[in-house]
Amino acid sequence: MNSQPVSFHRRISKALADSQLRLALGRTTERFTAKRAAGLASLPDVDAVRDRARAIRLHTLSRLDTYLEQFEAAVTAAGGQVHWAADAKEASAIVLDLARAQSVERVVKSKSMVSEEVALNETLIGAGLDVVESDLGEYIIQLAGETPSHIIAPAVHKTREQVGQLLAEKLGVPVTDDVGEMTATARSVLRDVFLRADMGVSGVNFGVAATGSLAIVTNEGNASLAVTAPRIHVAMMGIERLVPNLDDLAVMLQILARSATGQKLTVYTDLLTGPRRGDPDGPEELHVVLVDNGRSRLVGTEVGEILACIRCGACLNACPVYQQIGGHAYGSVYSGPVGAVLTPSLDTEGPWGTLPDASSLCGACREACPVRIDIPRMLLALRARSVRAGTADRAVRVGFRLYRWAATRPWLFRRAVAAARWLTELLSADGWLHRLPPPLSGWTRSRDFPVIASRTFSERMRDRAEGAK
Amino acid sequence: MSDSRAAILSRIRSGRAGQPESPAAPPVAPVPAGVPKTTALVDRFVQEAECVGAVVHRATRDGAIDLVGRLLVDAGVRRLVSWEPDDLPIPEALDAAVDRGIQLVEPSLPDGVEPLDRDWTTMAAADAGLTGAAGGLADTGTVILRSGLGRARLTWLLPPLHLVLLHAPFIYPTLPAFISARGELVGRSSHVAFVTGPSRTADIEQTLTIGVHGPKVVQIVLVERDREPAPESVAGDRIDG
Ligand code: SF4
């Protein structure tokens, strides 16, 4: 995963100061949230379906090794080939080797978070291949030389005016702020890309262990074209993205689109089983790359539940922190609540120690999640882990150690509170402290600190007890 | 590479070791409470399909033969790419369209072409694609298409207009209902597509735009065996004007 040198706090400040970004985010997350609610409401007995979806995912993870072997056998029986990649480097190398062995020059991609995660484009482009993203949002950010900022709406951070400018600059078309015109431009440019590509690279929404089928969904139809026109289809999938059988798949598909965009079903929901078999079109070869990259280590751990994620993006839209800072401030491929758990868990060596702090633990993500993943619980577990590992902020570690020392000695604690009350009253004019000196300045960088109450909780309880006598 | 396979599986197994043993199968779906009557299913299908931006024309079998050609002519279609007649629910519809002056380009792609010489340009130049659905889903307005010998996938993907024939009795209440009744189709075709309305995107500021990569227009000719040809339902008024 690509790490960013700039500190998390600096990225947050930058995001908050970007008025265009906040305009774009505000317009989008609000619409997403409203549509998701309506979409889920359209499913009779939605709670039962969510429970079942969760049970299916957790069951699959509990026997992931067996289902992976079953899946591999089924893909092979259908005429496809399965490749196992332990890490990002191996995943990219597998795809590059396939491309080289088949003299591939042009690659068309449909949106795949896993390929972002393993930085596939860098590898392929570095080797001289022509790689084009075909999802409209991905295409836009590829033109801009940026990275996605949302799981299902990668260009959510851009306003229409910015996109119009970008297309004019890069493609030489007239500037417009008409979204229809922009879309038509992209359609005609990308049409050619699909038809001339030698290899199509896609992600996978779900793999079906029993049949070896791949479920791939897009609204634009770009994945359908990318896996049909080129002679080779390479599907990149995380090892956790399996369901046992087609009945389970149907349940997951019913809930995926509703949670992601509020649609009842994604426009193109493709089930692919092996390469073409005497069909007039479709790929001659199908390669499935199973990517681990840190996932297998999570099985059975306190953050293992995050592997149940179906990448719908609902928790991003629901998160008050994401709504304010957007995806890029997280600095990682996966952003929002799911990213704050997944990124430090997959990439334990990376600079992600503070990512789990980017949450108010309000629980909106758990509420929004179609498979009811308990993200707040895992964020707490990760915070605790970073304190234990000594990677948490030094001021935080020392502060909490001091607090524990004082709080377990009542006489000392009472005196300390009295002193703090006297001091905070002295320093504050309006009941709040807006700036504290270091090392406490970390707190007031993004929030105010209240003056200590004139009577503490235990003092008030004692008063009540005495009054009752 | 096989090293990675072994390493991945063994890491998963050691993670599983401390966990309680799980049941061998995932939970089973509750039995759906009663299947709606066919007429209700068909009405629901029409309503949902129109909701996602498809255009539905209801017709009898005889009416549909003629209707396909009329719809194509009305849409200004000159070149048509189609599945083989035998793969269409109403094979005669193709001839009837050709009789109206529609030009048929390569019903399917040439077989035996060298991989590097693939050329989709004739197909990409077609104004419309004609296919037949293996099923429909009432609660989402979806048509189900499956690839096969005479059934090129690009037919429903490349042209700006996709015209699909659907037999009303093939409509299932939901996706899970279709899968439990006809799931074996998924293994038999290498591509089974569930298509719900025309291609769309909302990638720029969540502004809905139709026809980004796939068809801009999806027209469904819904064939109902015993339907009386009611004037408003054959959509004649939308065509001859
Ligand atoms: S954690 Fe849940 S809500 Fe968030 S993307 Fe994953 S499945 Fe969706």
In short, what is this structure?
The complex is a heterodimer of chains A (469) and B (241). Chain A has 469 residues and is of the alpha/beta class. Chain A is 51% helix and 11% strand.
How would you explain this protein's 3D organization?
The complex is a heterodimer of chains A (469) and B (241). Chain A is of the alpha/beta class. Chain A folds into 3 domains: 9-42 and 315-392, no CATH class; 45-293, 3-Layer(aba) Sandwich (Rossmann fold); 394-468, no CATH class. Chain A has 21 helices and 12 strands. Chain A has a 6-stranded parallel sheet, sandwiched between helices. The N and C termini of chain A lie far apart (64 Å). Chain B is of the alpha/beta class and 241 residues long. Chain B has one domain (35-223): Rossmann fold, CATH 3.40.50.10420. Chain B is 30% helix and 20% strand. Chain B has helices at residues 2-17, 38-51, 61-74, 92-99, 121-124, 154-157, 175-182, 184-188, and strands spanning 55-59, 79-82, 103-104, 128-132, 135-137, 142-146, 161-167, 171-172, 191-195, 200-201, 209-210, 217-223. In chain B, the strands form 3 sheets. Chain B has a 6-stranded parallel sheet with strand order 1-12-7-4-2-3. Classes of the chains: A alpha/beta (469), B alpha/beta (241). Bound molecules: iron/sulfur cluster.
